[in-house]
TrEMBL record:
<feature type="binding site">
    <location>
        <position position="370"/>
    </location>
    <ligand>
        <name>Fe cation</name>
    </ligand>
</feature>
<keyword id="KW-0223">Dioxygenase</keyword>
<keyword id="KW-0828">Tyrosine catabolism</keyword>
<feature type="domain" description="Homogentisate 1,2-dioxygenase C-terminal">
    <location>
        <begin position="309"/>
        <end position="462"/>
    </location>
</feature>
<dbReference type="Pfam" id="PF04209">
    <property type="entry name" value="HgmA_C"/>
</dbReference>
<feature type="binding site">
    <location>
        <position position="400"/>
    </location>
    <ligand>
        <name>homogentisate</name>
    </ligand>
</feature>
<protein>
    <recommendedName>
        <fullName>homogentisate 1,2-dioxygenase</fullName>
        <ecNumber>1.13.11.5</ecNumber>
    </recommendedName>
</protein>
<comment type="pathway">
    <text>Amino-acid degradation; L-phenylalanine degradation; acetoacetate and fumarate from L-phenylalanine: step 4/6.</text>
</comment>
<comment type="similarity">
    <text>Belongs to the homogentisate dioxygenase family.</text>
</comment>
<dbReference type="GO" id="GO:0006559">
    <property type="term" value="P:L-phenylalanine catabolic process"/>
</dbReference>
<feature type="domain" description="Homogentisate 1,2-dioxygenase N-terminal">
    <location>
        <begin position="33"/>
        <end position="308"/>
    </location>
</feature>
<keyword id="KW-0585">Phenylalanine catabolism</keyword>
<feature type="binding site">
    <location>
        <position position="400"/>
    </location>
    <ligand>
        <name>Fe cation</name>
    </ligand>
</feature>
<feature type="compositionally biased region" description="Basic and acidic residues">
    <location>
        <begin position="96"/>
        <end position="109"/>
    </location>
</feature>
<dbReference type="GO" id="GO:0046872">
    <property type="term" value="F:metal ion binding"/>
</dbReference>
<dbReference type="InterPro" id="IPR046451">
    <property type="entry name" value="HgmA_C"/>
</dbReference>
<dbReference type="GO" id="GO:0004411">
    <property type="term" value="F:homogentisate 1,2-dioxygenase activity"/>
</dbReference>
Amino acid sequence: MAIENINSLMEELKVNGDVGNAKRDASFEELDYQRGFCNHFSTEVLKGALPVGQNSPLKCPYGLYAEQISGTAFTVPRNHNQRSWLYRVKPSVTHEPFHPREPTNERLVSDFSSTSAASVTPTQLRWKPPHVPEAETNFIDGLYTICGSGSPFLRHGYSVHMYTANTSMEGCAFANADGDLLIVPQLGRLWIKTEMGRIQVKPGEIVVVQLGIRFAVELPDGPSRGYVVEVFSGHFQLPDLGLIGANGLADPRDFLTPKAWFEEKNWGIGGFTVIHKFGGALFDAKQDFSPFNVVAWHGNYAPYKYNLKNFCPYNTVLFDHSDPCINTVLTVPSERPGVAVVDFVVFPPRWSVAEHTFRPPYFHRNCMSEFMGLIYGVYEGKADGFLPGGASLHNCMSPHGVDTVTYERTICEDPKPSKIPDHALAFMFESSLIPRVTPWALSSPQLDPDYYKCWIGLRSHFDRAKKPEAVES
Ligand SMILES: O=C(O)Cc1cc(O)ccc1O
Ligand SMILES: [Fe+2]
C-alpha cells in the first residue's frame, strides 16, 4: 500500500476513533486511552497496520518501517522486560547529525558529583512558587533543576526539576536518554504528543514518559508550572501491597496509555528539531518530518498518565500516625530490598480518625531525603508558608515536622473524625540518595530565608509535676 494513500484510508478506517491529524483539534480533548499498568498493548490507527504473528516482516503493512525501542536490557528477566515495536512512516534514524544545542538550557543539569556546581546542605529548604516568565518559554527551556544525586552515566540516581513555561513546543520534540520523567503539573494542562500517541494531563494528574521516547508538550492554557522527577536508575513500578492484600492504593487499571496516533506534516529540510538529552547535555538533530509518525505499535514500553483522585488510601483506623510510605503511588526500587531510589508519594484527601493520637505528620529525622510539592490547597503539616507551586527539601537526617501553628492547634483540638479536605493535594519525591542542590535553587528569590522560624516558636510544654493522662484501653 503506497504511503500517499494513507490520508484517504484514514478517513475510511478509524480503528481507534482517532485520525492522524497535524492540527491541534477538539479530538485531542476527547482522547481515548488503553488501561492497565505496563500491559502488553496493541494499537493501530489503520486497520492491519500491526503485523500479525511477527515483529519484523520483510515488508510491513502500508509500507511502514518496523522499529523496536528497548526500555530494559534485552536480557532482563521477563517480568521486568520492557520494549515496544513501532510501525512508522520513517524510522527515527533519518536525521542530520546531533550537535550541541545552542543556546542550551544551563539550568537543566544531571551532574551532582562533588566537582559539580551543586552543593550539599542539611538546612531545611523551602521555596515559594516560581513566577511564570513573560518571555516565550517552552516546556524544555522552562525546566530547571533543583537537586539530585547520582549520574545518568552510572544509571543510578535521580534529579528533581521544576518547570515554568507559557509556549507550546512547535517544530520540535524532546527525548531524554538519561532517565524516565515523572511530571506533576501544578498550573495549566499539558497536551503531550508522544511517539505512542497523545496524552492530556491536568493538575491532579501525573504523566510518565520513559527514557528515549520522543514527545512534545503543548500548553493549551498558556502559563504553566509543575514538578518533574527524573530517574536514572530504572522504571517506575507499582509498589507491592504486602499485607494490604490484592487491592488498594493505585489500581493498575487506572493507568492510561495512549492509543496510536500520527501526523504526516512535512517540515521541509531541517525544519523539525529533535532535542536529545544525553549525559546531562542537550543535543539538536534536524529532520524534515515529525517523529509522531507511528501508525501502529505494540508492547509494554509506553508513556502513561494517572489521576491521583483514583488513589485509594489505606491508613490508620485506630491510633498513631502511619508512615508516609503507605501513600506510595509508584516506586523505583534500588538493588537493596525495600530501599527506593525514588518513591512517588501522595498525601490524598482522607478521613482522620485516629484516637488519642497526634494526627498530623510527626516530628522526625529520616535517612531518606524528602522533596515535597503542593499541587493545590493546604498541606496538613504546614498552616502557612508552603504554597501551591512551592516546594521544600528536607535532606537526609535533617529534622522537620509540623510548624508551630499546626502543633499548637492540634494539641488543643477535640479529635473527632475529620476529613483532610478534598481540595488539598501534596506529594513527595523520597529518595535513599543524598541530593545536592543547584546554585540557582539556593540563590533563588523564591527561597524562604525564614523557613526555620516556623519551628522556632515550638515552646516547651514540659511540666514534671503534671501526671500523664491515662489512655483508655
Ligand atoms: O515531612 C513530611 O511532611 C512528609 C511526611 C508525612 C508524614 O505523614 C509522615 C512522615 C513524613 O516525612
Ligand atoms: Fe518528612
